[in-house]
Amino acid sequence: MAAARVDYFYSFRSPYSYLSAPRGFALADDFEIDLHFRGVLPMMMRGESVPVAKRLHTMRDVKREADRLGMPFGRIHDPLGDGATRCLAVSEYAIDQGREREFVLAAGLGIWGEATDPASDEGLRRICEAAGLDWEACKAALSDPQIAARVEANTNELVEIGHWGVPVFLFEGEQFWGQDRIDDLALVLSDAGLARR
Amino acid sequence: MSKFRDRAEREIGPRVIVAASTVTAPARAAAAARRAAGRSGRLELYFGFDDPASAFAVIDLARRLEGRKVIFDLFPVVVRGIKDDPALERKRIYGVTDGRRLARRIGLTLSRSEPIEPQQTAFLAGWVAGAPRGAALTRFCVAACSRLWFESDGPIDEGRYEELWRECFGSAPVADEAAVRANEKQMTRRGPYETPAASIGGRWFFAQDRSAQIADWLDELGWTVK
What we know:
The structure holds two protein chains of two kinds. Chain A is of the alpha+beta class. Chain A contains eight helices and four strands.
């Protein structure tokens, strides 16, 4: 029998996505699920506005949550633009290699904890190599139109399911928005009898 | 864009904001000064009666403040949110689904399956905004939020809430629309863009999601449970 599917919509420009990643990917360790990573374009690149008050509050709130979760946060390089799209392209390549977890965790740490600029070859290469990916292959993925189409499809699907932000987990049509709803999803997965024994 | 400006926006600005947010000495000193003067701490909550996350926050925070010398300052609002937010309606619908999860955390069950229109509960905001702060007002807000979201479904009967008000205050409620508008303006001026938003000692929190952080911060400020 096929494992239950959980879709995980993620933006490399979202610090809440970054906070969600270790626990999001760990769901597949704890439950009989196929976790499908779905990288999407940042809100601001999807034509949605983010007010200054929201941006300021987000930085402060994420710092407190990161401290609580024991995750580095503060040495930031905002990847809006090329940095985000390059990470998205490589993440699709990483999926093909079965290393999306490693790549997403390395990219998140680089962007939000080490001020690594993924728009530069030097920065992105460091992230790719930390994730155990071949740099030349990653570079080729950056200009692969099929990979770009996959990212576009992910972004469109987030809109189609009627959601606006990330991270979002989707399980049997039910959406769980936010890094602070992972425990709620875990409860639902448990109730569905999917906990690994 | 110049290289320096680009770096300032992507790295220096966010880093400064994050670093500044970790400075706690002024807030701790201010809290100590209040205690030395015999005054209480203050937790401000901006909330909407039409919002299930706000109902959760009112009930949860009222419980968490028990035993602490902290005034629960309740500011009801009706109009709020990101200006021209294209996702407003979807957020209201999702809010009900999410409210069900929040309720489960405090052992309650959401009794509604549809969102409430903000204007349907505007009368409650008007009563509360103009009333004196204190235990009776907290009692009313907790009871009204419980009844709205965890004990009833369908149309909202203003008369039943008036009875509740009389039980808490011993008199009839008085609507104060101007006070609601003042709360909304104050909320916008001070930064939060969505409800429920809690402020303690100069820090803002998403009140429905940061209960543990709020309790830790109150402890750090010295407003501990006695």
